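for the recovery benchmark. tokens below, seq after
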């Protein structure tokens, strides 16, 4: 559970031969973020994730960007997921489920979340180009795969339609953020209870 300033905050540090990452999250924040991964478009997306989930988030990452962005993006997803899982603790008193359809100009994307303790990603998003600027579009899925796996959440993301690849990627991050915000929100009707007939949300 908590090791930061709030009751539901956590810090994770991850160091490998490929990346060095430090992440702090506060689930009961206001969406403030300090993001520095060295990957400009990814920083922009993580800002959106923090802002629209209302999760305060600090992310500092150094990776082997001379090779490509893959290790930095994936390992950041791992660290953020682990921090969220740690901050959630036993997952008592949360809403657990949430779903949203999020529009941005010509694009509409759905995200559905179960904070179940059982990691699973269903990804139904297609991009029409391999890159957004210099960012590989396939890394959007890699980030959410790492996030879901390490946060212990079931995550479904479906892009209904869209033309602009920047908009498609951004709606994925914003939709997941909004669904995550609702799913981890305390539910006053079941305060202190684990929202499962199993009595656990640890998988």
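predicted aa per position
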């Amino acid at each position: 559970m908590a090791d930061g300033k709030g009751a539901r905050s956590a810090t994770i540090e991850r160091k490998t031969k490929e990346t060095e990452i430090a992440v702090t999250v506060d689930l009961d924040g206001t969406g403030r973020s300090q993001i520095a991964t060295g990957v400009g478009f990814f920083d922009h997306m993580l800002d959106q994730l923090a802002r629209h989930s209302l999760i305060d988030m600090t992310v500092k990452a150094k990776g082997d960007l001379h090779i490509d962005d893959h290790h930095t993006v994936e390992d950041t997803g791992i660290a953020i997921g682990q921090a969220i899982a740690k901050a959630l603790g036993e997952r008592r008193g949360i809403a657990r489920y949430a779903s949203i359809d999020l529009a941005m100009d010509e694009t509409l994307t759905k995200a559905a979340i179960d904070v179940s303790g059982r990691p699973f990603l269903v990804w139904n998003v297609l991009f029409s180009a391999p890159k957004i600027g210099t960012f590989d579009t396939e890394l959007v899925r890699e980030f959410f795969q790492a996030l879901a796996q390490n946060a212990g959440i079931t995550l479904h993301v479906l892009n209904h339609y869209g033309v602009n690849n920047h908009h498609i990627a951004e709606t994925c991050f914003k939709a997941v953020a909004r669904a995550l915000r609702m799913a981890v929100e305390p539910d006053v009707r079941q305060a202190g209870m684990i929202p499962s007939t199993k009595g656990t949300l640890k998988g």
